[in-house]
Amino acid sequence: MIDPPNRVGGHRLFVAVAATSVLGFLAVFFAWPVVAIIGLGVGGDLLGTFAEPSTARLVGFTLGQAAASTVVALLAGMPLAFVLARVALPGKAVIRALVTVPFVLPTIVVGMAFRAVFDVDGAASSAVAIVLANAFFNVAVVARTVGGFWSHLDRRVEDSARTLGASGLRAFRSVTLPALAPAIGSATAVVFLFCSTSFGVVLVLGGGSLRTLETEIYLRTVELLDLSGAAALSLIQLSAVVTALGLASFARKRRESALRLRRADEAIRAPRGREWWVVGVAASVLAALLTPILGLLVRSVSGRNGWTFDGYRALSGTGADGTLEVSGWEAVSQSLRTAADATWIAMLLGLLASIVLVSVRRRSAEAMDAALMLPLGVSAVTIGFGYLVTLHLLPGDLRTSPLLVPFAQALVVTPLVIRTVLPVLRAIDPRLRDAAATLGAGPWRVRSAIDLPLALRSVCAAAGFGFVVALGEFGATSFLARPDTATLPVVIARLLSRPGESNLQMAYAACSLLMVVTALAVIAIESVRVRTHGVEEF
């Protein structure tokens, strides 16, 4: 049965309206502010900023620490990927949740956790701490991206190599590793992108002496009002982001092509022989991931005079000598409200974008997908400052709107929603849709009867992950939130900027509270996690 023209036309109209709405939001709340900031700085001495010796050092340290962090994350994540993909162990859901928790922790919490465990006195130790903290944050990307792909590979090819006399290591190098290359390439590009734009980690651990492009843009914009310099650095950062996104897109396409060519193998088995060594390494990595988390919890209940809960009790106040304009618990409430608003905005945009991306031609989908990923790598400070110089031109002056911070957070969460939901929609067998259409269902009925039930769990997971990411977003929020509407990450940063043991204890308590809420949310999300084509997406 062929769909009536009015049904097909209605669906095409919806796709067109959805694409216009999503791209319109991206244009107003991303492209316009970024272009405005760059435009303000173009009149300055851009070439002079490029030529400054400090710029070369900034770029070198940014790329160097990102590369080192990526290597550490890959080395730590591969054993975990093997365990998640191939090993039958009790409590795999708990292991998967523990691996995922670091990825969704607020960056400022990660910085505080490493500050609680490691001595960061000096540039060398600070650099090492930054590399380890960024790797800690991104191990989950490697473990879940590579592990999801690995679980799909046909194990019989590797077993055949072993039967022909190859050792386990040689079989891995010659058979498994080349097959995993697309997933490893995709994970590498994404991890490098996240590490090169890290903000909270460098802000807490850098000690003011070590700065990346992201923190330097913040310094020049907020403290020095050097718009020309900030614009020049934003252009450098944007070029690096576009390159990383291009590599990630290329690797993702190779991964999807590989999945279509190989038979899925969902079977896992107990480890054998030397595989136990890999399991042991994975257990060591997991213990290392838990060390900063446990160190932060311990530090939150210990002070100069021993064990104390003064930090948690201080959450009902505003810090020493009125450091804050809101209490800690008011900041918690504000964080929850802001994250909820950001989540529903991001879910609306992400679901509309996902429907568009599976409905339009491939080249159009690739261009739109790349555009929607750009906010992940552009300085949140640039976006936040751009809001202040552009949004007053819109009716109602959105700079005073309570939705200002949620809009900025939604830009970060929307790509996460798309990356979680889109693979599921693409994985749905088109024959199911064809069968429903043959039975007389129109496009909307097909979506509600076929797509929605199959994608519902991924939608729930996307909403949960989006909420915890928005809850801990710090970059744009630190610039846009007013003192009387500060969120918990902003409160933590302000407490750290003021001297006093009581402020420090309160900051550690707030970090621990935020971490516990995040961990509980991840565990809840894991109960409805989705595996699509054997590849797990965030």
UniProtKB/TrEMBL annotation:
GO annotation, biological process: transmembrane transport
Transmembrane segments: 12-38, 58-85, 97-118, 124-146, 179-207, 227-251, 276-298, 342-360, 372-394, 406-425, 454-472, 506-525
Lipid bilayer topology: Multi-pass membrane protein
Source organism superkingdom: Bacteria
Pfam families xrefs: BPD_transp_1
Keyword Cell inner membrane in record: yes
Record's GO cellular component terms: plasma membrane
Signal peptide start and end residues: none
Chain ranges of the ABC transmembrane type-1 domain: 59-246, 332-526
Protein localization: Cell inner membrane; Cell membrane
Keywords: Cell inner membrane, Cell membrane, Membrane, Transmembrane, Transmembrane helix, Transport
Keyword Ligase: no
PANTHER family named among the record's database cross-references: INNER MEMBRANE ABC TRANSPORTER PERMEASE PROTEIN YDCV (PTHR43357:SF4)
Family membership: Belongs to the binding-protein-dependent transport system permease family.
Name of the protein described by the UniProt record: ABC transporter permease subunit
Species of origin: Allosaccharopolyspora coralli
